[in-house]
Specification:
The chain is of the alpha/beta class and 249 residues long. It has helices at residues 15-20, 57-68, 77-82, 92-100, 142-148, 164-173, 185-193; strands spanning 3-6, 32-40, 72-76, 108-113, 133-136, 153-156, 178-181, 199-205, 227-235, 238-245.
Length: 249
């Protein structure tokens, strides 16, 4: 079913309520995985290396709404560095909805890094009361992980590369059932290749960008996973689309 919604000043739509009312239940023996990405109408995901130049106030509200339903937010180390991630800070409405759903008041956040090379001085590690999870490969730099130990929880996979199924196994064992994947493109691509994406959320920004910016996913092998359109929301020429995975027969 497609719900086409156009937001007007006289008929505001709260993305927190829309996204929060949707069902997300793990059915494949792993956590449910949704994504959130933004692109220009010609497919660019960044302007001068950052996604913020494509966004709007409405896009930020959708970003926060999608974060509000996640047990844990997952991002690659490059995205965390480039976008200067901070600890999650859901608003009052989102916090209450999370508590009503039986979730923690605040999302967990996991950083995926094969090398472990993250500065403990990044804004993400600035809150002494909040420790992000760092999921590193087996060959990660021992000194780098030791420097992160006071400000983060550390998990290492059995392999040098950090594979999607290993990430989801770690998160599932921690009790997380809804995972929000925020990129970058290489991490998204690895989850797509592993058939570990259940819901794809894409904001289309009403801009042409050109340049050399990449697209929302990048991987080694091309695949073809069928999704169905769940909803479309438009506001001030920004289009918010959600697709959900069709399970193979």
């Amino acid at each position: 079913m497609v719900i086409s919604l156009r937001a007007h000043d006289s008929d505001p739509i709260d993305p927190i309520d829309l996204i929060g009312s949707q069902s997300r239940s793990p059915t494949t023996g792993r956590p449910y995985v949704l994504t959130n990405m933004i692109s220009s109408i010609d497919g660019a995901i960044a302007v001068d290396g950052l996604s913020g130049g494509l966004g709007s106030e409405a896009d930020f509200k959708m970003f926060m709404a999608l974060r509000s339903v996640a047990d844990v937010i997952v991002a690659g180390a490059g995205t965390v560095r480039d976008e200067q991630y901070k600890p999650p800070a859901p608003g009052a409405n989102a916090r209450q909805q999370r508590l009503d759903r039986g979730q923690s008041e605040r999302q967990a956040l996991a950083v995926v890094t094969a090398s472990g090379c993250l500065s403990p001085d990044l804004p993400l590690f600035s809150d002494p009361s909040y420790k992000p999870l760092v999921i590193a490969g087996s060959d990660a730099d021992a000194e780098a992980l030791a420097a992160l130990d006071p400000v983060a929880r550390i998990e290492q996979t059995a392999a040098a590369s950090v594979e999607p199924h290993d990430v989801l196994a770690i998160l599932g064992e921690a009790g997380h059932s809804v995972v929000l994947l925020e990129g970058g493109p290489k991490l998204n691509g690895s989850f797509i290749e592993a058939d570990c994406v259940d819901e794809w959320n894409l904001t289309m920004s009403p801009h042409l960008v050109g340049g050399t910016s990449g697209r929302a996913s990048r991987g080694v092998s091309a695949v073809l996973h069928r999704f169905e359109l769940s909803h479309v929301l438009e506001h001030e020429d920004y289009v918010f689309m959600q697709w959900r995975r069709i399970a193979p027969d």
